[in-house]
Structure formats: structure tokens, C-alpha cells
Amino acid sequence: MTDTPLQQRFEARLREHRGIILKVASVYAAGAEDRRDLAQEISLQLWRAFPGYDAAKAKFSTWLYRIALNVAISQRRRESASPAACLESLAPHHLDTIGGGQGIAEPDERLAALYRFIGELDALNRALVLLYLEDKRYAEIAEVLGISETNVATKLGRIKQTLRGRMAGATSTTGA
């Protein structure tokens, strides 16, 4: 089978934005094999949707995030009614994936508490935090998640407030 121009464009875009797929798979799947499976399913769904992609309506990365997160969340729902069954708690190696490879050599207890907190979030809020940590603007987060910018700001504000309380509690219990 010869490559078509559409397939060539898709493969080039996929290579360019592969990191997004890996980030989403890393946050939503437990274990290396599950992450590979999820990344493959995301890629397949992106290929199926690619003929309908309209650059005039959305940036490619926004379109990709929307599909990747929808696939990840849908797969999680199909696999289990219990979120803990297929969501891996965030650990230091996730920072390498989320932060674009800029990991931290020795994470402290506060960082571990942050990972635990993010790992406990529901699927939508986890996606929200993932996009926020990627330095996406509220407008882009809203577009990806299909919620309003006001809702993004409100949810992030609540998450930050809860996190501050949790981190203050973690600091007071460790004596730091």
C-alpha cells in the first residue's frame, strides 16, 4: 500500500505532536502496557477523525487534545466503574512526561503529596490540571474540554484552594 497525501500529512502531524498523546496516556493509564495501548487507541481515533479536521476551526494541538482526552476518559469508563482501578497515581516519572522531560532529581514530600492529590482527581479535573500544567490558556482549556472559560477558572480556583489546604496539612504533619 502506498502512502496517500492525507496519510503523509497525518503521520507528519502525529510525529510533531506525539508528546501530547504520550502525556495523556501517561496520566490516564496504569502501567507501561496500558499506556502503550491507550496511546495506540488515541492514534487510531485521531486517524479516523483526521479527514474531518478543520484548521480554520481549531489549532491542531487543541483538536488533538480534545480527541485524546475523550478517548482516555471513555476508555477509563468502559474498563471500570472504579476510577482507582485504571488510573495510576501520579508519581515523579509523570513529571518527566508532563513537564516535557524536565524531571526533578529528588522529589520531596510536598511534591509527593502534590502527585497524590492530582492522582485523586476525577477524570475531568485531571484533564484540567494536565492542560494547566502544560501552560494552556483558559480559552484553549475551555475549548478542549468543552466547558466555558469561567468554568475553567472556577474549577481551577477550587482545585488550587483544595490543594493549598492539603499542602498546608501535609506541611504541618511533617514539621516542615
Quaternary form:
single chain
* Share of residues in strands: under 5%
Number of contiguous helices: 10
| Number of spatially distinct domains | 2
CATH topology of the largest domain: Rna Polymerase Sigma Factor, Chain: A
- Total beta strands: 0
How would you characterize this protein structure?
This protein is mainly alpha-helical and about 180 residues long. About 75% of the residues lie in helices and about 0% in strands. The longest helix is centred in the last third of the chain and has 26 residues, at about 150-175. The chain starts with a helix and ends with a helix. Residues about 80-90 and about 95-105 have low confidence and may be disordered.
What's the helix and strand layout?
Layout: H1 5-16, H2 18-28, H3 32-49, H4 60-79, H5 83-86, H6 92-98, H7 109-119, H8 123-133, H9 138-145, H10 149-174
Helix pairs in contact: 2-3, 2-4, 2-8, 3-4, 4-9, 7-10, 8-10, 9-10
